[in-house]
Hints:
The strands form three sheets. The protein has a four-stranded antiparallel β-sheet with strand order 6-7-9-8, covered by helices on one side. The chain contains three helices and nine strands. With about 140 residues, it is an alpha+beta fold. The N terminus and C terminus are likely disordered.
Amino acid sequence: MLLHFSRKSLSLQFFFDQGARLGPLGLGTREQTSGFVAGIIGPTTIKLSESEIRSALRDLSGWTVLDGKHHREYKFADFIHAFGFMTSGAIAAEAMGHHPEWWNVYNRLTVDLTTHDAGGISAQDVELAGKLNALYPNGERPELR
């Protein structure tokens, strides 16, 4: 048996010799030929501590914590710019396999980030917040925040 760890998930791989097969609970029996099974058995993403969250916020311009989630409100010139930002953000989020909670009204976008599997804010939320900030065209123009 091989146990493989990665940052996003725990992968458990079983190797059986000749004559083994999986029973009803995924346990090996000796009733069939050889077999191999790989599966995801759960996330290993860990909720950040309060001090880790405070530290991350120092590097994330415009982000706060609201209701236990990373929170930011973006402002754009108009709806087209807000929607374009959401499109770019969606591509970044999809590439990470981590998706924001967000709401758009005309030129404003509200974003909340949390990792439900971890029960709060995780490093994935911090990473996605940084990517969204990097995509924000008005970065340091307070009048458009």
